[in-house]
Structures are given as structure tokens and as C-alpha cells.
């Protein structure tokens, strides 16, 4: 298997974790870092053993030796930065949320097709073994006809601690940052929703500090979820059927500990080796090795569907980034 040379664009908080995952992957090499600051790029490169550092995203993307670029900037730059990389003929793994909205997502997918490169959203939970386990339990009718799903992803922060989360021009707010995980779980298990409702407690800058949303799926399955950047939650997900429950224990988005209650109680532990992000990196490496331009797991159709769900929920909760940029 050919070694793939990875570049990181925007070496911030999450990039550190994904850098570790690239180093853990079977045929990924961390080759170059691009930051707005050369010192920062060089420091990151030194810490993670990358050979090259750039003080411009454009120059990073122009490096002929690179195969793939991981986009780790704030949401509002995902479209622009992914397109710079793809126009330089680089494959792209782009952080979640894939884009600010479905329109940007379409532009990115068209750009990938035009430049004949691979493109995927870094929604890593979809590659974890626990995701497959829950789907198997549902397919085996382990809890009978499904009635409800509940989940949340919340944490308590402030503009002083994490300015990006509260800044509308960077796509701040709870839904796109963390709410995307419970919605991903719901849509992974039940498909895309037929109906929705949403409301939010907005900050004075107009992003959702706490957001609440209900989705209704085929066969009447109803999901009730919430997300917050200003309060804690229990981080648990529960699927309730007529004959029992599947509990995905905290943190539900890692799907590592699952309990099936259906007359008796059975526990499933579905750990994985290495970092949370390693399996998605292996997926990208495999897809590129096989000449694929999209992943069958986080396919364009999946990501576009998720972006439409996010757009719909944001519209209903009154969060509009485009008027605030
Ligand atoms: N998959 C996950 O589990 C996960 C977890 C956390 C975050 N994320 C996603 O990853 C993305 C980045 O999140 P993060 O928490 O790592 O962000 P962060 O640390 O605040 O910022 C990431 C980097 O973006 C670059 N950047 C470019 N323009 C910027 C601007 N105007 N303001 C601030 N930074 C700018 C900066 O790099 P330079 O200055 O060095 O160029 C910065 O270090 C978000 O879209 C987020 O949703 C994913």
C-alpha cells in the first residue's frame, strides 16, 4: 500500500488529535502543516514530526508532494479552504460540519468532481464499531417496533474560554458544533427525517447557546434531542421500542458502551484501537488507495442530506449566519 502524505490546514485544537490519528494510521504520513503563522506551523510540525511548515494555506495546498489535506479551520472557512486544496488537485478530508449550509456543501462536491479528487466530511462517529452494533440490534428487532430516540451533546463554556463557539462569523452555536452528533446518530439509525421542529436560546450575537429539536422519521419514530455550549448534559442516547431499550452510554457519540434491555440486560463493549479519529483516517487512506472519489459511509448523498437537516433546524431556530458575516 502506498504511503499517503497528509497536510493539515489550520493547526488548532482538533488538528492536534487528528494529527495523532494520522500518525497511528497504517499508511498515512503527516508531511506538512499550513498556518497563518510560520512559528505556529513550525511548532506543530516539530511536535508531530512533519517535514514541512507553511505560513500560507495556499502554499501548503500547492506543495506537489502532498496527497491529501485535512481542513481544520472554523466552519465558516470549510468551503473556501477545501476548494483551495481541491483546485490544487489535493484530496480533502474536511472537519464537521462539512460546510455552513447545503449550498456550500454542493459547491464543494462539484469542485471535487471537477478536479477529480476525493472529498469526505470528518464525521468520525460513523466509522466506529458501536455504530455497526446498534444498527445490528435494530435490524434484529431486539427491542420491537421503535418508538422514540433521545440524545444530547452539551458542555458548559463561555466566549472568553472558546470564542469560536460564540462567534456568528465563524459559524458558532451549539447545533453545528455538537448538536450535529445526536442528529448524526438519529439519521444513521432511522434515515433522514420526514418532519422537524426546533427552537433555541440565542446568545446576544444570535447563535444558539442551547438548541432543542424534534425529528420524526419513517414509521413514526420520534427523536427528541438538544445541544448546548453553556450547560452540561448527560451525553447519553436512548432508543426505546415496544419491547425494550437500547442505551448508548456517555459519551454516546463514541458508541463504546451499549446496554440492551429487553426482558434481560446485555452489555456490549465496542472499543477501538487508537484515537477516536483513526478509523476515519483509515477509511480515507483506503478510499484513495482504491481510487474512490467519495466514501460509501460518509458519501456525498449522506453529507448533503445532513446539511439539509442542519439548514432546516437552523432556520426554525432563527440562526442565520449569512446576514452576520
Ligand atoms: N471532529 C471533532 O471531534 C471535532 C472536535 C472539535 C472541533 N471540530 C471542528 O474542527 C473545526 C476547528 O475547530 P477547533 O476547535 O480546532 O478550532 P480552533 O482551534 O479555534 O481553530 C482552528 C484553526 O483555524 C485557523 N483559523 C483560520 N482562520 C481563523 C479565524 N478567523 N479564527 C480562528 N481560527 C482561524 C487557526 O489556525 P492558524 O491560525 O494556525 O492558521 C486555528 O488554529 C471546527 O469546524 C469544529 O467543528 C471537530
From TrEMBL:
Domain GFO/IDH/MocA-like oxidoreductase: start-end pairs? 132-246
> What organism, scientifically named, is this protein from?
Lentisphaera profundi
Please provide the record's keywords in A-Z order: Oxidoreductase
Protein family (similarity comment): Belongs to the Gfo/Idh/MocA family.
Under PANTHER family, the record lists: OXIDOREDUCTASES (PTHR22604), TRANS-1,2-DIHYDROBENZENE-1,2-DIOL DEHYDROGENASE (PTHR22604:SF105)
Organism placement in taxonomy: Bacteria, Pseudomonadati, Lentisphaerota, Lentisphaeria, Lentisphaerales
Fetch the InterPro entries from UniProt. Answer: Gfo/Idh/MocA-like_OxRdtase_N, Gfo/Idh/MocA_domain, GFO_IDH_MocA-like_dom, NAD(P)-bd_dom_sf
Q: Which Pfam family, just one, is annotated for this protein? A: GFO_IDH_MocA
Name used for this protein in its record: Gfo/Idh/MocA family oxidoreductase
| All residue ranges annotated as the Gfo/Idh/MocA-like oxidoreductase N-terminal domain in the record | 4-121
Amino acid at each position: 500500500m502506498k504511503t499517503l502524505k497528509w497536510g493539515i490546514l489550520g493547526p488548532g485544537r482538533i488538528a492536534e488529535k487528528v494529527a495523532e490519528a494520522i500518525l497511528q494510521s497504517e499508511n498515512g504520513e503527516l508531511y506538512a502543516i499550513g498556518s497563518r503563522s510560520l512559528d505556529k506551523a513550525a511548532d506543530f510540525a516539530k511536535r508531530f514530526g512533519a517535514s514541512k511548515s507553511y505560513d500560507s494555506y495556499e502554499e501548503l495546498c500547492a506543495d506537489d508532494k502532498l496527497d491529501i489535506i485535512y481542513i481544520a479551520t472554523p466552519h465558516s472557512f470549510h468551503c473556501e479552504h477545501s476548494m483551495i486544496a481541491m483546485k490544487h488537485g489535493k484530496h480533502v478530508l474536511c472537519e464537521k460540519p462539512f460546510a455552513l449550509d447545503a449550498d456550500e456543501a454542493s459547491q464543494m462536491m462539484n469542485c471535487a468532481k471537477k478536479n477529480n479528487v476525493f472529498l469526505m466530511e470528518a464525521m468520525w462517529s460513523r466509522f466506529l464499531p458501536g455504530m455497526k452494533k446498534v444498527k445490528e440490534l435494530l435490524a434484529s428487532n431486539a427491542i420491537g417496533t421503535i418508538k422514540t430516540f433521545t440524545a444530547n451533546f452539551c458542555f458548559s463554556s463561555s466566549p472568553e474560554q472558546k470564542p469560536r463557539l460564540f462567534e456568528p462569523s465563524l459559524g458558532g452555536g451549539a447545533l453545528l458544533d455538537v448538536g450535529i452528533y445526536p442528529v448524526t446518530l438519529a439519521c444513521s439509525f432511522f434515515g433522514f427525517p420526514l418532519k422537524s421542529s426546533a427552537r433555541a436560546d440565542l446568545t446576544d450575537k444570535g447563535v444558539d447557546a442551547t438548541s432543542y429539536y424534534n425529528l420524526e422519521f419513517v414509521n413514526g419514530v420520534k427523536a427528541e434531542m438538544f445541544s448546548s455550549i453553556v450547560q452540561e448534559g448527560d451525553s447519553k442516547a436512548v432508543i426505546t421500542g415496544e419491547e425494550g431499550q437500547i442505551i448508548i452510554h456517555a459519551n454516546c457519540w463514541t458508541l463504546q458502551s451499549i446496554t440492551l434491555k429487553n426482558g434481560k440486560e446485555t452489555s456490549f463493549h465496542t472499543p477501538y484501537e487508537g484515537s477516536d479519529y483513526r478509523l476515519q483516517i483509515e477509511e480515507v487512506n483506503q478510499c484513495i488507495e482504491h481510487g474512490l472519489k467519495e466514501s460509501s459511509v460518509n458519501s456525498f448523498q449522506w453529507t448533503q442530506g445532513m446539511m439539509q437537516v442542519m439548514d432546516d433546524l437552523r432556520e426554525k431556530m432563527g440562526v442565520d449566519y449569512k446576514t452576520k458575516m
